[in-house]
Amino acid sequence: MTNLDTGSFPTRVLVVDDETDVRSALARSLALTGHIADKAASGNQALQMLECVPYDAMVLDIRMPDIDGIEVMSRACRLYPDLCIIILTGYATLESAITAVKFNASDYLLKPVSVHEVSAAITNALQQRDQKGSARTLPLERFLRVGPITLDRERHLAIIAGSDDAGSRRVKLTASESALLVHLMQHPNTIFSCHELAQAVLGYDVSEEEARSIIRPHISRLRKKVESEADPLHLIHNVLGEGYFFTL
């Protein structure tokens, strides 16, 4: 399959989802943003359409009634290595989405999703594909999982597992909050002073007093985001006079 030159032609996208409303809404919205968007209601139909049309990207639901999204992606990648695949998933199938990214899906998006997110993911995937020889974030380095938290370091997105799939939450972090959480998660039950965190995470070589004024607001905002009041997890602890640590 030879994909279209997206610099000269509209991007051709195949939207694959067994839910009619989701499929139609995404395809219609993508068409309004300048893409050529076709629809497939099943994995089998998607594979048949890929044989006939040179698609640039495929937006693929992970849960399909005939062939699941992982299998569709696996077959499509073998046959059409230039095809950019964006996986759609709900909280209950996040594990499969991470697996898909590890096996060369261009990206994943968590439902409910906006057309702006989908369009941006397609554009980013096509840019990465077209940058010959450009470095791509290694899948095994992108995701960090410790205890109930899965952190997507590339997107600065934390997914906090609840007592069941429906109770899972996702929170958007700033780059500094994400970096602090990574450092704490990588060293569970290890206490770090504000000076150590400022130096190791943010690159600030300042006094402990100055470091406290920098780190404490970041930690406060981070705790509010990842520790739900309804279901307090108490993941990030403060030891008076010593610093902070992440507990499992």
Q: What distinguishing features does this structure have?
A:
Arc Repressor Mutant, subunit A; alpha/beta; single chain
Give structural notes.
By secondary structure, the chain is an alpha/beta fold. It has two domains: 12-136, Rossmann fold; 140-246, Arc Repressor Mutant, subunit A. The protein is 42% helix and 20% strand. The protein is built from nine helices and eleven strands. It has helices at residues 20-32, 43-52, 69-79, 94-102, 115-130, 139-142, 175-186, 194-202, 208-226, and strands at residues 12-16, 36-40, 57-61, 84-89, 107-110, 143-146, 149-152, 157-160, 169-172, 236-239, 243-246. A five-stranded parallel sheet has the order 2-1-3-4-5, with helices on both faces. A four-stranded antiparallel sheet has the order 6-7-8-9. Helix 2 (43-52) packs parallel to helix 3, helix 7 packs across helix 8 (194-202) and helix 7 (175-186) crosses helix 9 (208-226). The relative contact order is 0.09.
Question: What is the number of helical segments per DSSP (H or I, 4+ residues)?
Answer: 9
In CATH's first tier, which class of the largest domain applies? Alpha Beta
Number of strands: 11
The CATH architecture category of the largest domain equals 3-Layer(aba) Sandwich
The total domain count is 2
Please state roughly what percent of the residues sit in beta strands, choosing from under 5%, 5-15%, 15-25%, 25-35%, 35-45% or over 45%.
15-25%
Helix content, binned percent: 40-55%
CATH superfamily of the largest domain: Response regulator
Largest sheet: 5 strands, parallel
- From the 3D structure, determine the CATH topology of the largest domain: Rossmann fold
Mean pLDDT: 87
What is the ordering of alpha helices and beta strands? Answer: EHEHEHEHEHHEEEEHHHEE
Query: Poorly predicted ranges (pLDDT <50, ≥5 residues)?
Result: 1-6
Structural class: alpha/beta
